[in-house]
TrEMBL record:
Protein name per Swiss-Prot or TrEMBL: Zf-HC2 domain-containing protein
Alphabetized Pfam families for the sequence: zf-HC2
Keyword Membrane: yes
Stored InterPro entries: Znf_put (IPR027383)
Transmembrane segments: 87-109
Domain Putative zinc-finger: 3-36
Keywords (A to Z) from UniProt: Membrane, Transmembrane, Transmembrane helix
């Protein structure tokens, strides 16, 4: 992914609107590209500050920088979870096929 693509995804990242694959590529880039990280951080902090104003939560002492790190951690966790889920359903499919194959062999053996 290049910087232009990453920058175009900043907003969607903040809105949590990226697909798992996009999210993974995006985080990969952002974590290795200080200029995009800065960009993301700026947008994220502005967004978080606005939301805090909307909610009028008294907790304005919240460290906004930490908030982004927290969000990235959570996003990574989400990617892992989705990958795990996908792997599981893959395994489930293989088990199903293997099971069907076994069943077929069993039927054939019975009829022989
Ligand atoms: Zn970049």
């Amino acid at each position: 992914m290049n910087c232009q693509t990453a920058e175009s995804m900043v907003n969607r990242y903040i809105e949590h609107d990226l697909s798992v694959n996009e999210l993974e590529d995006f985080l990969d880039h952002v974590e290795n590209c200080p200029s995009c990280y800065d960009e993301l951080e700026t947008y994220f902090i502005v967004h978080a500050a606005m939301r805090q104003l909307d909610e009028e939560s008294g907790d304005s002492s919240l460290d906004l920088r930490e908030l982004l790190e927290d969000d990235i951690r959570r996003s990574k966790h989400y990617i892992l979870k989705m990958k795990f889920r996908r792997a599981l359903s893959g395994v489930g499919f293989c088990t199903l096929i293997a099971g069907l194959g076994g069943f077929l062999i069993y039927i054939i053996m019975q009829t022989l």
